[in-house]
Design goal:
The complex is a heterodimer of chains A (about 120) and B (about 110). With about 120 residues, chain A is an all-beta fold. Chain A is built from no helices and 11 strands. In chain A, the strands form 2 sheets. In chain A, strands 2, 4, 5, 6, 9, 10 and 11 form a 7-stranded mixed β-sheet that branches. In chain A, a hairpin with a 6-residue loop joins strand 5 and strand 6. The N and C termini of chain A lie far apart (about 35 Å). In chain B, strands 2, 4, 5, 9, 10 and 11 form a 6-stranded mixed β-sheet that branches. Classes of the chains: A mainly beta (about 120), B mainly beta (about 110).
Chain lengths: ~120, ~110
C-alpha cells in the first residue's frame, strides 16, 4: 500500500527536551511538508521540502528543524526553543511542480503533549 | 496576510440539508483549488478539487462552485448525512507549488 506514515501517534515530552517526529512516504513524491494544527484552527506550514537536501521555512518555523537526506523521509525536530509545542503535527507529500494537480497526501498525524 | 479566507467557522445542519462553505482568495495566480475533509484525530484527505477554467465540478454529493471574477469558491454538500460531520478545509496553490489553506469549517449534521 502506498501512503504516508507518521510515528509515534502520541508523544509526550518534558519541557526543555528536543523530540523528533518521523514521517515516511512511499509515494515517490518529491515534495514533503510539515504542518501544525491547534484545536479548532487550520493548518499552519512549518517547513517544506521540494527535493532531497533542500528545504524552506514555512510560516511558523521558529523552534523547529528538519532534514531531508532521503526522498522518502522528512523528520521534524521540535526543539526546546519552541514556546508552545503541544499540538497535532501533520506530515504531507505531493508531486511538487510536476503535475497540474497538486493534491497533498497527509499522514495520520502525531499528537505531541508537553508535560 | 491571509491569502485564503474561509467561512463560516462552524456550521450545523439537519440531515438532508445542504451546507455551503465559502472561500475567498486574493492571489490571482492560484490555479488549483482543492477541498479537504478531516475527521477527528485523522489527517485531512482530498475530497474534490477544481481548476479555474471551469465554474462547477460535481462528484457524488459534493459540488464546487467557482467564481473567477469574484475570486471565490464554495463547497456544497447535497443531502448531507451525519457521516459528513467533519472539518472541511479549502486550499489554493499556484503552479503546483505549496498550498495555502483556509482556517477550516467544522460541520455537524444532526440526525
Amino acid at each position: 500500500d502506498g501512503g504516508i506514515t507518521q510515528s509515534p501517534k502520541y508523544l509526550f515530552r518534558k519541557e526543555g527536551q528536543n523530540v523528533t517526529l518521523s514521517c515516511e512516504q512511499n509515494l515517490n513524491h518529491d515534495a514533503m511538508y510539515w504542518y501544525r494544527q491547534d484545536p479548532g484552527q487550520g493548518l499552519r506550514l512549518i517547513y517544506y521540502s521540494q527535493i532531497v537536501n533542500d528545504f524552506q521555512k514555512g510560516d511558523i518555523a521558529e523552534g523547529y528543524s528538519v532534514s531531508r537526506e532521503k526522498k522518502e523521509s522528512f523528520p521534524l525536530t521540535v526543539t526546546s526553543a519552541q514556546k508552545n509545542p503541544t499540538a497535532f503535527y501533520l506530515c504531507a507529500s505531493s508531486r511538487y511542480r510536476v503535475s497540474s494537480y497538486n493534491e497533498q497526501f497527509f499522514g495520520p498525524g502525531t499528537r505531541l503533549t508537553v508535560l | 496576510q491571509q491569502q485564503v479566507k474561509q467561512s463560516p467557522q462552524s456550521l450545523i445542519v439537519q440531515k438532508g440539508g445542504i451546507p455551503i462553505i465559502n472561500c475567498a482568495y486574493e492571489n490571482t495566480a492560484f490555479d488549483y483549488f482543492p477541498w479537504y475533509q478531516q475527521f477527528p484525530g485523522k489527517g485531512p484527505a482530498l475530497l474534490i478539487a477544481i481548476r479555474p477554467d471551469v465554474s462547477e465540478k460535481k462528484e457524488g454529493r459534493f459540488t464546487i462552485s467557482f467564481n473567477k471574477s469574484a475570486k471565490q469558491f464554495s463547497l456544497h454538500i447535497m443531502d448531507s448525512q451525519p457521516g459528513d460531520s467533519a472539518t472541511y478545509f479549502c486550499a489554493a496553490s499556484e503552479n503546483a507549488g505549496k498550498s495555502t489553506f483556509g482556517d477550516g469549517t467544522t460541520l455537524t449534521v444532526k440526525p
